[in-house]
Write a structure and sequence with these properties.
elongated; 2 domains; mainly alpha; Tetracycline Repressor, domain 2; Arc Repressor Mutant, subunit A; single chain
Amino acid sequence: MEAQKRSRLSREDWLQETLKVLQNRGVDGVKIVVIAESLGVTSGSFYWHFKNLQDMLDYLLQYWEHELTDAVIDMAREFRGPPEDRILNLMLQVIDEDAAAYDPAISVWAKKDPSAKEVFERALRKRFDFARWMFKQSGFSDKQAGIRGRLMVAYLMGETAADLKSDKNWKASIRGKHKILTTRNDRSSETRN
């Protein structure tokens, strides 16, 4: 039975279960035995895919940065349509795909571990820089684009943590926040902001 399960489990299976454990227990709760028990296998099968726990944690950080930051940015960059629609599509995608679901756990981990901190800060810079670019494409000044971009990124991270998607009207909520973020306020000059 164990050999049969081991042959069916992939590196991706271990990664996805480790992400769940990280999200629920934090990095200190990520233990090979805990992950193996969750998967219904012995801890020995872990070593078919990873050298040790640090190897898994490095792989997890790489996955988080590339799949949940870089890939989302790449898809948004390829969007062909009005800049405001690009922003809305990205906002909807992040919530729909739970792309920021592991951000709180990674953030806490980053406070304890220099490697995690480096990856977390690099991913945030990428998100903030891309968000600024999107708002600049929509006609905002660099300063306004930076402010709106940071607000959008922080909002999406927060709403994912707050489980906005469980609300049946989550898409309407995103559209409302999108409208606020992309509407210019004619009563104040951007130079004063």
